[in-house]
Amino acid sequence: MDTVRKGAIYELVKKYGLTQFDSGRYVIPQLPVVINSRRLLTDSLSIEVANIQVDTIKQQMFDIKTVVAAKSSSTWWIWLLVVLALAGIGFGIFWYLKNRKKTVKETIVYTTPIEKATAHLRSLEKKGFLEKGAIKDYYSELTDIARIYIEEAIHVPAMESTTSELIEAMRIAVRRKKMSLSQETFEQLEKVLRTADMVKFAKSKPMDFEIDEDRSRIEKTIVVIDKSIPEEVPDEESNTAAWEEQQRRKKKRKRRDMIIAAGVAVVVFAGVYIATGNGLGYLRDSILGAPTKELLEGKWVTSEYGEPPMKIETPKVLKRYNEEQIQNNLPP
């Protein structure tokens, strides 16, 4: 029942819906209405239900269809596919964690600085700098090989030092390490470094035999320095510590893989259990969400309208409209 207020008067409006399948004239009798213990009667109403004309020539008539068997609603095959898919995913993850191998780039590992320097000298000759006329590149790489060896072998900052600074730092390191290097060794190394500086900065071009001699000087200097370095006794404790650290990392990696595999197994088992007990729809709605489920589980709002009040419970707060058209039941 709708309540419309017009000034000091309340208008009560009650709408009824009528359904009649047979044509003819019908009379709705007077209906009693009780207001404040006062009994009133409505006016009687005559209603005529017209018949619908059907053109059987244009509109064909058909017999009533027989009962059709409904399709089976069994979804056991869906559960089977879900279980197989989850089991396959779990097995795939387990197999990957068990058999994975780290991709290791193929790199040449040198055990000693002299081995590294010798290999780089052999590689330098194969690059063909001299045949291409790239003398500057040849001397730059030749001296870099010597500087890197000195830096790694006797721990002198050779790459950042000038020629004079490098020779002086080497003399200090030789005295500190009690190495037996002759003055000739220093002079031969310094001569090659000076020549390389002239090639790189003064665009000097040595003769072919001079280039061969410089290459030979670098090779001999590296060998002499390596032989003069005192032998160091391997530290067994450091080797043991390194081995223990390696074993610890392996155990940690294995433990992590087991935890991941166990977590995947738990998730797969939980998914299968929930899907079996509550249905695939429940599992899908719980993970992906569903609008109807959110409305059902959400907090609904109760509102009251009219006089006497009519309670309506809705998922969202309704807005009140006091437009004249609505109050007077007028068309929009």
Describe this structure in words.
- This protein is mainly alpha-helical.
- It contains eleven helices and eight strands.
- The protein has four domains: 2-49, no CATH class; 113-228; 251-297; 298-327, no CATH class.
- The protein has helices at residues 76-99, 113-126, 129-132, 135-154, 163-177, 183-201, 208-228, 236-278, 280-288, 291-297, 324-327; strands at 2-6, 9-13, 24-28, 32-35, 38-41, 45-49, 301-305, 310-314.
- A two-stranded antiparallel sheet has the order 1-2.
- Strand 1 (2-6) and strand 2 (9-13) form a beta hairpin.
- Helix 4 (135-154) packs parallel to helix 7 and helix 6 (183-201) crosses helix 7.
- 8% of the residues are buried.
- Residues 102-106 have low confidence and may be disordered.
Share of helix, binned: 40-55%
Measured distance between first and last alpha carbons: 20 Å
Largest sheet: 2 strands, antiparallel
Count of domain modules: 4
Radius of gyration: 49 Å
Query: What is the H/E order?
Result: EEEEEEHHHHHHHHHHEEH
Strand numbers in spatial order across the main sheet: 1-2
Q: Taking all residues together, what is the mean pLDDT?
A: 79
Number of strands: 8
Number of helices: 11
What key phrases describe this protein's structure?
two-stranded antiparallel sheet; 332 residues; mainly alpha; rod-shaped; 4 domains; 54% helix; single chain; 11 helices
Topology:
Layout (H helix, E strand, L loop, with lengths): L1 E5 L2 E5 L10 E5 L3 E4 L2 E4 L3 E5 L26 H24 L13 H14 L2 H4 L2 H20 L8 H15 L5 H19 L6 H21 L7 H43 L1 H9 L2 H7 L3 E5 L4 E5 L9 H4 L5
Antiparallel strand pairs: 1-2, 3-6, 4-5, 7-8
Helix pairs in contact: 1-8, 2-4, 2-7, 4-6, 4-7, 5-6, 6-7, 8-9
